[in-house]
Amino acid sequence: GDSVTQMEGPVTLSEEAFLTINCTYTATGYPSLFWYVQYPGEGLQLLLKATKADDKGSNKGFEATYRKETTSFHLEKGSVQVSDSAVYFCALRGTSYGKLTFGQGTILTVHP
Amino acid sequence: GAVVSQHPSWVICKSGTSVKIECRSLDFQATTMFWYRQFPKQSLMLMATSNEGSKATYEQGVEKDKFLINHASLTLSTLTVTSAHPEDSSFYICSAWRPTSGGDEQFFGPGTRLTVL
User: Fold this and answer.
1) What are B68-97's pLDDT values in tens digits?
2) In chain B, which residues touch A (CB < 8 A)?
């Protein structure tokens, strides 16, 4: 079945540091890929998505490129801020609309 | 984006009692609602899919008689944990989904923390 593997956390960075959170997936066919962010006390929010190979999703300075050859969708940001501290989830959606398979989540803490 | 609320945000109950969790989409009509369960430091696991006016579809390994789902309207779905036991303690998250002209959109609730004593 479908599965998503994220890098182990937590990740702790200083403000303005470069961020990478690795995500790889296993799926049949051509899934859509997502990054969600969860701030404390809030629901998951869609951060970015890509629906086909070589697509790049971007939002709020975050980027991720759908790499079919390496089955990866790594999240990157060039300069993190304290306000980026949250839990980040990589997810895929296969053939069933709305049904998401999530990675285990990565806690990011950014210090001033 | 749209707002999805859950009530209560946390609940503590005694073993053997039943607990109802509500999920409401506040400003759009959700064709489908999903219920997820999240264990500490683990991923969200899909429990069931519910469509308004029809029976929920449960994922393999999820007891449908234990986790009763009712989707009474396009804005409300409820999850009832029946005869709760300590192993049911978890974080329950719902999401509301609908198709759009450009594809689809999905919004998540903030979650409900259930602790069974």
Assistant:
1) 999 888 899 999 999 999 999 999 999 999
2) 1, 4, 32, 34, 36, 41-46, 49, 93, 95, 97, 99, 103-104, 106-111
